[in-house]
Design goal:
The structure holds two protein chains of two kinds.
Chain A: H1 2-32, H2 39-56, H3 61-84, H4 93-114, E1 133-134, E2 139-140, H5 142-164, H6 166-176, H7 178-183, H8 188-210, H9 218-224, H10 226-234, H11 240-260, H12 268-285, H13 307-327, H14 330-336, H15 339-347, H16 349-355, H17 363-377, H18 384-404, H19 409-425, E3 433-435, E4 439-441, E5 449-450, E6 455-456, E7 459-460, H20 464-487, H21 489-499, H22 501-506, H23 511-537, E8 539-540, H24 547-560, H25 565-585, H26 596-602, H27 611-624, H28 626-644, H29 650-681, H30 702-712, H31 716-722
Antiparallel strand pairs in A: 1-2, 3-4, 5-8, 6-7
Chain B: E1 2-13, E2 16-27, E3 31-35, H1 42-49, E4 57-62, E5 65-66, H2 72-77, E6 80-83, H3 95-100, H4 109-119, H5 121-124, H6 136-148, E7 154-158, H7 166-181, E8 185-189, H8 193-197, E9 202-207, E10 210-215, H9 217-229
Parallel strand pairs in B: 3-8, 3-9, 6-7, 7-8
Antiparallel strand pairs in B: 1-2, 1-4, 4-5, 9-10
Classes of the chains: A mainly alpha, B alpha/beta.
Chain lengths: 723, 231
């Protein structure tokens, strides 16, 4: 009984913290429609700042608390709202999600930049030395008592604020109808700013209260707050009372798990992953909105790829990979070779998130499964293991898809993130175990496993150069597959499903099968990427496949343009070529590069179509100017030959490799005006605009009217009759 | 004096133009009806007038002063009130909280409530009820009550009748007529042409983003069917 009470108090304390954090999350979500993935990170930053003021600089606790909770946190919230979040109105959920995920990555990077990881920063709880309060059968520490009291105060305060204060009512009004609040004379921007200020303060309060338990560590503290998200999901991200109920359920569950879960090597990871498991269960158990008929119109536009374009892209890529593989040193190849397997993982997002609009934050986890399969079934270098990696990852993907079918948008993102945490904190860390004595499962062998190089056609591909070429060829093939899917029946179905599930269902499209297919396909591709990644690394561990990496890959693929294969390449190149290159060239940047992926993602709100779209537009004149293109190819080949003959060094070669297309594009751009004139002369220009955009994209002409009549099958007689 | 004047207004959504040079005046103390088929640009015209949608060209004048770019909350404080299409209410707030939102215009809650319940006694009985649970007619009454509570000089009404039974529509337009008699200028958009023509002093017919006809209701009755049927 005493034990039960003790852990009830532990649970209630957690519940109090989760309630505080989750209510801040709900406040910002409801008033501005942005689910702030970085909410926990704001709490983490606050905890670090408090530690800095209180323990490093020795300020007194009340002053430090005042400065953090009532000055810095609200200012930070206002800053987030005005600088970043306000620009996100009218963008898709994916873009909003990427921006807040990038913010999370940025804040973790920032914390690690300011407070170097690995240094011990003890953070005592409040009134640590004081004797706990005696409650008869058990005791409660002052920190626990304060935490619970603060949560109750927050609950009452928020209740009064939101129903009595006019600005509080305006906050709820903005949730119902933002433009109507304007018509009433309230200023919604001011309401949003206040919501973010208040929300960030609540996150800060929660962060400071929770930090003494797990200790100050940027990434884990930010993600630990996943439990608070589970509480918010309980309230369906809208209802504050239900959020408090959810917090109590989640907090108590974690408290009792801590008290009663048997201690053994299989369940240590389970305890660490328990918040994610609870979040996953809550997401599945809670009723979800049924099919929505509302069509979401957005600023995104992904053009249809052509087969020739795809082939050109694939061929260029393979040629470039061969050139690099035969010129770079082994050490460089090991560093930059990772571009292609990670690129394949990013490619797996294109059909899933780009075409079908299903957000997944666990692609690296599928890659991890592929890596495990490669390590065990590919022992000795059997290339068939690659096939197994694809099949098994696809099967797991389908299994994940089953529960995920009920989720969409932000809930799906949370569900897949929870799945990733469950895998990388618990499942991947499991030691060897037997299933009903039938067969043995040995994932990462509780640490890391070695991966043999692929052996085929009597050769062992154990050198980085051949591995890079294999991965590049695989990337090119998968890219072609994705292009082919986009142009085919499945691609059309996926895009239709993204636009309106309800419409698809009424047309007789089997949503279940389509979603299962795309999830399995995507997981399979990720599995292939993981398997190839594993052969390059030669030894893999759970740390290679963590949620944070999935987040980075997802964010940068969206930045690149998630609807096209180029976006995947963009993500992989920026993460695994650009960043390492930057630190090689300027070693001083090594501490700053952690901020870059996040910073890039935050800038996404401006161009939802992705960077690749613009890059492509830039290259279009080059593709049209055949002469310039030929000269460029000759120049690149020449540079390659010079490098092979050792006339120039690697650096010169790489610079030439980058300079040639750039110069060629500029040259082609100069040649372009003439080309357009020629085209106009042939009247070709008239037909490049689809019929429905004529008169909108360019002036309406008589010829258009005639063509429209012809296409509609209207005869002269009928036209006269109407006129 | 003209309380509202639109001069050569052009507006659109993204790449699609909706209004091609609208000229419209609402003289003080009169009711002007804006009629026209679906997609003619009626609601867009109202949204431009209320400052919710920026015009791409042209001027909006309220009481003789140019107000292009003035935010809608500022216009609301200057006595312009739009009751939007659908139900212009906050469904998750109570009736009282809905009325309280109007106090941003500087009117005291007590005054707002007094005026609202005078005109719509039925709302007084439902003061703590959540607005989303009211009947359609009551919700529209609440929207009007909220709009009128601030004593606006100009009332913009968008499709009061939407989704309501004809008998309730009649009832609502009786209130509109009464409000007009009290001296409030009104610009009303409506599909129920016959009902609104009984109340209006002037009417304008909008077709394809242009004002096709303006005149007294009696003069327009014939043109109306043409505008709707496109014949």
């Amino acid at each position: 009984m005493d034990k039960f009470l003790t852990f009830t108090i532990v649970g209630l304390t957690l519940a109090a913290i989760y309630a505080i954090i989750a209510s801040g999350l709900v406040l910002t979500y409801t008033t501005t429609g942005i689910f702030n993935f970085a909410h926990g990170a704001a709490g983490m930053l606050a905890a670090f700042t408090y530690w800095q003021l209180r323990y490093d600089w020795g300020w007194s606790a009340p002053i430090a608390l005042f400065v953090v909770l009532l000055v810095l946190a609200p200012l930070f919230g206002v800053l987030l709202e005005t600088v970043i979040m306000r620009g996100l109105q009218g963008t898709t959920e994916t873009v909003k999600l990427v921006v807040s995920i990038s913010l999370l990555l940025f804040m973790i990077g920032l914390a690690q930049l300011i407070w170097r990881p690995g240094v011990s920063r003890p953070m005592p709880s409040f009134f640590e030395g004081r004797t706990p309060i005696d409650l008869g059968p058990t005791t409660i520490t002052w920190h626990q008592a304060i935490t619970i009291a603060v949560a109750i105060a927050v609950a009452i305060g928020l209740r009064i604020f939101l129903t009595r204060a006019r600005i509080g009512i305006a906050m709820r009004a903005a949730v119902d109808d933002r433009s109507l609040t304007m018509l009433n004379g309230a200023r919604p921007n001011r309401v949003s700013m206040l919501a973010w200020a208040l929300g960030t303060s609540l996150a800060a309060l929660g962060g400071i209260l929770i930090a003494p338990g797990p200790g100050l560590e940027a990434a884990s503290l930010s993600l630990l707050i996943v439990s608070a998200y589970a509480a918010a999901v309980f309230g369906r991200l809208r209802s504050l009372p239900m959020t408090f109920v959810g917090a109590i359920v989640v907090g108590l569950a974690e408290g009792y798990l801590a008290g009663y879960l048997p201690q053994n090597q299989y369940l240590t990871g389970f305890r660490i992953a328990s918040p994610a498991i609870i979040l996953f269960i809550v997401l599945l158990v809670l009723p979800n909105p049924r099919l929505r008929g509302r069509m979401t119109r957005s600023r995104e536009f992904f053009p249809m790829p052509t087969i020739t374009g795809g082939l050109g892209f694939a061929l260029t890529l393979v040629v470039a990979a061969v050139m690099l593989a035969t010129t770079l040193s082994d050490a460089d190849l090991i560093t930059y070779g990772r571009v292609f397997p990670i690129g394949i993982v990013a490619l797996s997002l294109v059909p899933l998130a780009g075409f079908a609009g299903q957000i997944s934050l666990c692609q690296l986890s599928f890659a991890g499964i592929g890596a495990i399969v490669m390590a065990h079934l590919g022992a000795g270098g059997d290339p068939l293991a690659l096939v197994w990696a694809v099949l098994i990852a696809a099967a797991v993907g389908a299994v994940v898809a089953l529960p995920a079918l009920r989720l969409s948008g932000i809930y799906l993102a949370l569900g897949t993130a929870a799945f990733a945490v469950i895998l990388d904190r618990w499942v991947f860390n499991l030691p060897r175990f037997e299933v009903f004595g039938l067969f043995e499962v040995n994932l990462f062998a509780g640490g890391s496993v070695a991966v043999d190089p692929i052996r085929a056609f009597g050769t062992e591909f154990d050198d980085p150069a051949s591995q890079m070429i294999i991965a590049a060829v695989a990337f090119a093939l998968v890219a072609l597959l994705v292009v082919w899917i986009r142009r085919g029946r499945l691609g059309r179905r996926l895009l239709a499903m993204k636009d309106s599930e309800a419409a698809c269902a009424t047309l007789g499209l089997n949503l279940l099968r389509t979603k299962l297919t795309v999830f399995a396909l995507s997981a399979g591709i990720a599995g292939l990427g993981g398997a190839l990644y594993a052969t390059q690394l030669t030894s893999v561990q759970p740390g290679n496949f963590e949620l944070v990496q999935s987040l980075q890959v997802f964010a940068l693929t969206v930045v690149g343009g998630i609807g096209a294969v180029g976006g995947a390449l963009f993500a992989a190149v920026s993460l695994y070529a650009f960043l390492p290159l930057l630190t090689t060239l300027w070693p001083a940047t090594v501490r700053w590069v952690g901020l870059l992926p996040g910073a890039t993602g935050i800038g996404l709100g401006r161009n939802p179509n992705g960077a690749v779209h613009e890059i492509r537009q830039g290259f279009l004149p080059l593709l049209a100017a055949r002469a310039v293109l030929t000269v460029m190819c000759v120049a690149v080949t020449g540079a390659y030959v010079l490098r092979l003959l050792d006339f120039i060094d690697n650096w010169t070669f790489v610079v030439l490799l980058i300079a040639c297309p750039v110069i060629a594009t500029i040259a082609a751009g100069l040649a372009k005006p003439r080309a357009v004139e020629v085209a106009a002369g042939h009247g070709a220009e008239l037909h490049d605009v689809p019929v429905e955009w004529r008169g909108i994209d360019r002036p309406w002409t008589e010829a258009d009217a005639e063509e429209l009549d012809r296409r509609l099958g209207l005869s002269e007689v009928e036209l006269r009759g109407v006129g | 004096m003209n309380l509202l004047e639109l001069r050569e207004i052009r507006a659109g959504y993204d790449r699609i133009d909706v209004l091609f040079g609208i000229d419209l005046v609402v003289p003080e103390g009169s009711v002007v009806a804006l009629l026209g088929p679906n997609g003619a640009g009626k609601s867009t015209t109202l949204r431009v007038a209320a400052g919710l949608h920026p015009p791409t060209a042209g001027d909006v004048l309220v009481a003789g002063r140019r107000v292009n770019g003035v935010p809608p909350e500022e216009l609301a404080r200057r006595g312009l009130c739009l009751i939007p299409e659908g139900r212009g209410i906050f469904p998750n707030l109570t009736v009282r909280e809905n009325l309280r939102m109007m106090s941003y215009t500087g009117v005291k809650l007590a005054d707002i409530e007094e005026r609202a319940f005078d005109r719509f006694p039925r709302l007084g009985e439902r003061i703590v009820q959540t607005a989303g649970t009211l009947s359609g007619g009551e919700q529209q009454m609440l929207a009007m009550a909220r709009g009128l509570a601030t004593d606006p000089a100009l009332l913009l009404l968008d499709e009061l009748s939407m989704g309501l039974a004809p008998i309730i529509v009649e009832e609502l337009y009786e209130i509109v007529a009464q409000v007009a008699r009290e001296g409030v200028s009104i610009l009303v958009v409506e599909q129920f042409a016959s009902t609104v023509l009984g109340v209006a002093d002037y009417a304008a017919i909008l077709v394809h983003g242009r004002v096709a006809r303006v005149g007294r209701p009696a003069e327009l009755a014939d043109d109306l069917s043409e505008a709707y049927l496109g014949a």
